[in-house]
Amino acid sequence: MGQMVSMTVASLLLISVLVCVIWRPRGLSVAWPATVGALLAITIGLVPPLRLRTIFDDTWDAAATLIALFLLSEALDSNGFFSWAALHLARFAGGSGWKLYILILVLTTATTALLANDGAVLILTPIFARLLVKIYPKEAVWLPFVFAAGFFADATSAIFVPSNLTNIILADANHLNFTEFAKWMALPTLFASCAAGLCFGLRFRSLLGENYNPDVLESPESALHDHLVFWISWGTLLVLIIGYIIGGQLHLPIWYIAGPVALGMVLLVQARKISSAKKILQVAPWTILFYALGMFVVITAAFDANVLSFLTEPLHSFLTPEAGVVGALKASGILALLSASANNLPATLIGVIVLKTARVPNALSIYAITLGVDIGPKFTPYGSLATLLWLSILARKGIRIPWRNYFLENWWVTLITLTVSLAGLLITNAFLR
Question: What is the per-residue pLDDT across 182-227, written as a single tens digit (0 to 9) for each?
Fold first, then answer.
């Protein structure tokens, strides 16, 4: 196949897949266009079979870990763990809208850190929706809580390697362990959470000033089905954290830690007759695996055909040691905008390819890119899978947020949050370089 033909076919394939992923006609799963696009790329010879092994090696851990964390989240939720936490926080807030706002953001951040952004959205969004419907009769008052919680699930997901699919892909490709990653990302995440929380708080300050009656809420204990499983759940989360730290030092794939922990919890809830393993396994997002693998094949096809040279060439120049801080910030900005316009998984995969082919990329650039693909997608309602899930869950609960409203409420918060988080990264770099 000639170079010009390869470029044309790869371009059309990439554009078609991205359009279907972003617009999802008739609610189409994002896995379908990615998988079909990958099969076409392989069939017509854009990606040779030998490249598939490399692609699989770069993505399997991220996709498998995300599935494992979702299984763990479902197992915990089947026992009422997150409903217990939400009710406990709502009662602890004592009827204060401001206190509840802060506590919801804390719970979202903690859940995202341990169980990933997609898991936090899938589990917490319906719980928060049920809670808000019960305590606030007026729908308008729900907005600051749902907007901020949805934003935090992505914006604070840079804290740990397993907190976002994009983190795992970047960390695996650049051999970053759990402790090292957390050390670099702790301050940027703290800055991001403070900036986003303050922005939404100021924007919705009049609504957050409305109090509620905590007496209408049931007891947190009533949400739990099995108290033994509840206490074991806390131990499971502790084991998960310790496993991440030890596994990171041993350079083990994260799935080796998250997988056994998740399966153990699934078997426990089945043994205690809380839920069935079959039911939990059936609702797991298995399509994530096909989505990640498929997108990487399509992106690789476009890269090999020189379709992405307008992006990869400037990114290469920004990732050299000579480019320094300015280059790292430029790379972060480019991939943040790419994440917002074409979804953050393709942007991440482009970042991985560029980092692998760059001449000794500096460490700061890797973490700056991570912030770009984690926070940048929040500019648009289709920038990340978590946001698409969040919007669809809210719609099923009767809370519809038009894309125009989403953009108006989020663009400026995203810009400020990304800027502040990068400032935190520069401060970290001054101490760790």
Answer: 999 999 999 999 999 999 999 999 999 999 999 888 999 999 999 9
DSSP state letter for 141:
G
- Cβ burial of 178 (10 Å; 0-12, 13-18, 19+) is buried
Taking the CA atoms of the chain, what radius of gyration do you get in angstroms? 21
Contact criterion met (CB below 8 Å) for 342 and 291: no
Determine the Cα–Cα distance for residues 409 and 424; give it in Å rounded to an integer: 24
Assess contact for 71 and 286: CB atoms under 8 A: no
| H or E segment to which residue 142 belongs | none
CA–CA dist 347, 342 (Å, integer): 7
Number of compact structural domains in the chain: 1
Supply angle C-alpha 55, 59, 62, rounded to 5: 175
CA dihedral 406, 340, 125, 214 (to 10 degrees): -50
Task: Give the range of the structural domain holding residue 136, as residue numbers without chain letter.
Answer: 3-432
DSSP conformation class of 219: P
Q: What is the pLDDT of residue 59?
A: 84
Instruction: Compute the C-alpha angle 38/346/66, nearest 5°.
Output: 85
Instruction: Look at residue 60 in the predicted model and tell me its pLDDT.
Output: 87
3-state DSSP assignment of residue 275: coil
Q: pTM for the full model?
A: 0.92
